[in-house]
Task: structure prediction
Amino acid sequence: MKYSLFSLLRQAASGHEHWPAQWRDPAPKSAYDVVIVGAGGHGLATAYYLAKEHGVTNVAVLEKGWLGGGNTGRNTTIIRSNYLWDESAAIYDHALKLWETLSQELNYNVMFSPRGVMMLAHTVHDVQVFKRHVHANRLNGVDNEWLTPEECKEFCPPLNIARDIRYPVLGGALQRRGGVARHDAVAWGYARGADSLGADIIQNCEVIAILRDQSGAVAGVETTRGEIRTRKIGVVAAGHTSVIMAMAGVRMPLESFPLQALVSEPLKPVFPCVVMSNTVHAYISQSDKGELVIGAGTDVYTSYSQRGALHVSRHTIEAICELFPMSRRLRMLRNWGGIVDVTPDRSPIIGKTPVPGLYVNCGWGTGGFKATPGSGHVFADTIANERPHPINAPFSLERFRDGVMIDEAAAAAVAH
Amino acid sequence: MLIVRCPYCGDRPEIEFRHGGEAHIARPVDPGATSDAEWADYLYNRSNPKGLHAERWRHVYGCGRFFNALRDTVSDFFVATYRVDEARPRILLSSEQRR
Result:
């Protein structure tokens, strides 16, 4: 069913009781052309573009829990593409361009809101690094501009630009095309799109083994709902990638950490943009429900627990209170953690693996949501054509062996 | 916040420590005879298990010493901590510790 004003009026006339389900709940078939492991935003986008762009519709997306229940539903929804290195700028801006028309593409309102992402500089080093970012981004056709503290304040009135705070604001880098989107709607929109094109989205179906044939190539997966034969597997399992890849005997350059986020009680609209401060670890925006959405840091130890220690959230809240004094009496509503898979150079891994037929899309670390459409788009292309798309070719697993890092860790000086 | 048992100082809060990554990773003995793939495995690949993890910790705001720990990465429960010159204890997780 196509969503439109007409369909809305027609359903309203019958009391909104006859909306059809947005996707089916099929039982797994015995075989598929492609099996995607993980029904988060990236996995569902991969299934969608496999069907839409490459005509590969005999696809299963396997999810051990519920659709979009992992990091897709746990992130702080920030979208930007102002990365330093050419390879990163290419993939993140590819994603940003897809975000701009995604609601129309999917006929599903993902509430993409390019309200501007402002990254604050608090030290001389920050200023130098961010200005370098601005210039590098412009050379890559990515919009980014330098703001004085007064211009930062004008763009985000709640900001405290007093000179006598612990980390005064010395300026900021603003990407006006950046913003936020409704994270759940992204998963739902891609799920509905992929399902309508023929993909089976199978929830509560955990992969417990990867089957291989005599040549060592992929032959299928063993799941909690039975065996599924396939010649191509795309692993898009975020924090659990190491676990899935170990089933095929592939060791990964990944460590999984809990990343925390929290939201405040709802407020009237007071916060017009996204503000990030890598130096004091504060990431904040306001959702359409009115809650201030706050990103905290990762815990220091590897974990799969989807929760973290309170002192990590507290550290972020202290920074928020200093930068935005209006928030000092605000109460926090809830906090949570997601498990993020972090690579040594803080750039993702997208491509083939040493096992024929096994493809991986992982390592997005603390910043994968923004890349969802672009990631799915190039990964689908990689699986369909059995070779990397030019945009994700540099993000190979072999770059660690060959020493060709895409070192966004050094570029950003923090996880990002 | 986790309570970490330093083998030298006893139980201390997590913020006194730094996490040092996976333990028992041996540097290749003969660099000249080590392939690029083996170097990459040593430098970058990690077991990253869901379950018992042998890992290094350093008591930076205490005695300053490194030690090893066995921790369940599902519950974050510390099963054991031990000195770096000790072998990894042969311990399996009981269901009680998992809680």
Q: What stands out?
A: The mean pLDDT of chain B is 92. The helical segments of chain B are 36-43, 95-98. The first helix of chain B runs from residue 36 to 43. DSSP finds two helices and six strands in chain B.
